[in-house]
Amino acid sequence: MSTLRFSIYRYDPESNAAPRMQSYELDAGFKGQMVLDALLALKEQDDSLGFRRSCREGVCGSDGVNVNGTNVLACITPLAGLKQPIVIRPLPRLPVVRDLIVDMAEFMRHYRAVKPYLINLEPEPENERLQSPEERAELDGLYECILCGCCTTACPSFWWNPDKFLGPAALLQAYRFVADSRDQATAERLDFLEDPYRLFRCHGIMNCVEVCPKGLNPTAAAGKIKALLVKRAL
Amino acid sequence: MPHVAGAHRGLDIWLIQRASALVLAIGLPAFLLYAASQPVLDYAAWRSLFVPLPAKVGGLLCILAVLVHAWIGLREIFIDYVHHLGLRVLLYFAFGVLYLGCLIWAVDILWGVQ
User: Fold this and answer.
1) Interface mutation vs chain B, best among A195, A198, A199, A231, most B CBs within 10 Å
2) How many CB atoms neighbour CB A189 within 10 A?
3) What is the ipTM of this complex?
């Protein structure tokens, strides 16, 4: 019976060794399962292998990894159809904490910077702030983001300026609140975004769209922010 | 958390890049049609394409659009890859002067055709 072959990025900051690729093998019986199932089985073989996971069904966004060159959520990526050896690396460009675990601090800093919450200074209504079905529909394709980081770490503009470019995930969230009919801080949000780095590093490369495990479109969101800036300026 | 406003730059340049692309998207096919409409396209015919004033103006607009588009493209590349500010400003300047020189040269060529 044939086996499934893996090549996995290993790095232990406590040893002085440089990062390396380690080979693993699994029974071919795993073929019908997901990459995360394979990682869990490999951890049984070698408990020093580090990776994040939680919900194991594509909801929590903690197991973003790079498999054969593409950022994916390990838990919803089938092993079947992957070219062997299956090369698993941490998400690109973020600092590696250990093995497949990356430091998301920079990613989260950009997320916080766009103030990802409703800003409305009017007195709170008795029940809720109402929206028409059309206004609510504006948020479809925006609110579903699980912040896994697959898009931002697939973006070349983020690779070159990770400290200044917000990245697709944060831009999608920025537009999510700009587009919200209940939000009153649109002008301030646009002021923040109108910057050669924060927004305008987005050149519509669309790697983000290609890898988003939730099928969202950050490039379109960035385009809509640009359209609003044009509308405001002209 | 302090909410520091952006540099309020980037929109103008982004718009100009799109505008220059639009000029080229219209201008280049128009020029190809214009050239293809000639019965023969030897050197004399090619030269005579640029004799009418509208051809000179259209040609110069396209060259200007190419140069502006190219300068903005280079600016994006420099922002991504040249992180040393002094060097980057020097590159903006050098290519700005070079492209301006190309523009003046193009004026001389186009208006030299009589």
Assistant:
1) A195
2) 20
3) 0.86
